[in-house]
Amino acid sequence: MKKKKIAVVASGWHFPEQFYKEVASQELPDGWEMDLFCVSHRDPSFAIEEKKDKKFEGERAFLDERLYTKVLSKEKIEALGWKYTEEPNTVGDWGNSNQWLEKNDYKKYDLFLFTHDDNLILSKQWFKTIIL
Question: For the whole prediction, is pTM greater than 0.85?
Answer without folding.
Answer: yes
